[in-house]
Design brief:
By secondary structure, this protein is of the alpha+beta class. About 25% of the residues lie in helices and about 25% in strands. Helix 1 crosses helix 2. The longest helix is centred in the N-terminal third of the chain and has 14 residues. It is globular. It binds succinic acid. The site of succinic acid has 9 residues, from strand 5, strand 14 and strand 15.
Length: about 290
């Protein structure tokens, strides 16, 4: 038995695990995330995260300090370049009060893995609901390993060695001065990632382009690049690769950002206030490319 298998077996003993869909997602009960984790619990959660790709918890009324402490069990925490709380820079607030009373137009450009505009995109994220609408505002998660696996052999052959360009230009609209916009562009110029990433811990192949941060296929003309990306962006939208999570205050989703994408469903008219801590990842490696 490998250490990973032992940790996964321990997880079944330590918590109540309820898988939510065949492809990904499990709810974990009988754990209090406000408390420091011992090494066995930390290892078991890490193994469960690799196995189920996204873990869900209810009733976790964490303080901001406890949220940060929980995330820090799994690695160094990021500070987001655009959104962070002044007193808690590791916390990214997602507050949607400005949408109250307006129906937010649904957009395709919402499926993403976090921070792929970074040279070393996030390894994992821990999202906590502080205020949730009584109805709506769910988040859908997709298994990007299954999304790759089920592509045709012909498409896999086309994309296995390709490189894509990512950038954070989607955030420019939130910056209120040219100086801030220039600073973001200077801090995060376009970055190259393999279109198919090899997961650094499981060795699985992952479809690693997303509709928020991926701009184009490197060295391809625009029409060809747009057509291929449209096909690949569509692949994560298949319901059989997904799990959908309805939030209540104190609910948490903890996802492996290297193996999943997610979509925040914009169908609500009441306040929604989420806070995220995000764990630093590593440089994505492709199947055979130098990346
Ligand atoms: C995120 O993209 O990290 C937030 C998703 C959500 O608000 O549901």
């Amino acid at each position: 038995m490998t250490a990973y298998q032992a940790d996964l077996a321990a997880a079944q003993e330590l918590f109540r695990i309820t898988p939510l869909q065949p492809s990904l997602g499990a709810e974990i009960a009988d754990i209090d995330l406000s408390q420091p984790l011992d090494e066995a619990t930390r290892g078991a959660l890490h193994a469960a995260l690799l196995h189920y790709r996204v873990l869900f918890f209810r009733g976790q009324e964490l303080s901001r300090e406890q949220h940060i402490a929980f995330g820090a069990n799994f690695g160094e925490l990021e500070v987001h370049p655009v959104f962070s709380l002044p007193d808690y820079p590791q916390i990214l607030p997602l507050i949607s009060a400005e949408f109250v009373g307006k129906y937010r137009a649904s957009t395709d450009a919402n499926w993403h893995a976090d921070t792929t505009f970074r040279p070393e995109p996030s390894a994992a994220s821990v999202l906590l609901a502080r205020v949730s609408p009584p109805l709506g505002g769910d988040t859908v998660f997709a298994n990007a390993v299954a999304a790759y696996d089920t592509l045709s052999d012909e498409v896999k052959e086309r994309i296995d060695g390709l490189t894509a360009i990512h950038d954070p230009s989607v955030f420019i609209q939130f910056l209120d001065s040219e100086e801030k916009k220039d600073a973001l562009r200077a801090q995060y110029p376009e970055v190259e990632h393999p279109v198919v990433r090899v997961h650094p811990e499981t060795g699985e192949k992952v479809l690693y382009v997303n509709s928020v941060f991926t701009r184009r296929i490197k060295d391809w003309d625009k029409a060809e690049s747009d057509a291929l990306l449209a096909l690949l962006f569509n692949q994560v939208k298949r319901p059989e690769f997904q799990v959908r999570w309805s939030w209540r205050p104190g609910s948490i989703a903890f996802w492996d950002n290297r193996a999943t994408q997610h979509y925040a469903v914009p169908d609500y008219n009441e306040p929604r206030h989420m806070e995220r801590v995000t764990i630093v990842g590593d440089r994505p490696r492709g199947i055979s490319s130098a990346l």
